[in-house]
Amino acid sequence: xxxxxxxxxxxxxxxxxxxxxxxxxxxxxxxxxxxxxxxxxxxxxxxxxxxxxxxxxxxxxxxxxx
Length: 66
Fold this sequence. Notes:
With 66 residues, this protein is mainly α. It has a domain at 2-35. It contains two helices and no strands. The longest helix has 27 residues, at 13-39. It is rod-shaped and about 75 Å long.
């Protein structure tokens, strides 16, 4: 696939390298500005299951009652 793209690009080697660089930057920009922000709320990594201690607890965290 990459060989096919390289053969289809116009120009000499330097022009092809610049074109490929621009294509890579465009794809990265599309991913970072469109795809990743759209996917991020749908991922389960922010679903935290740790409960905070209740404020009415007379003992500090990590200590046991006497």
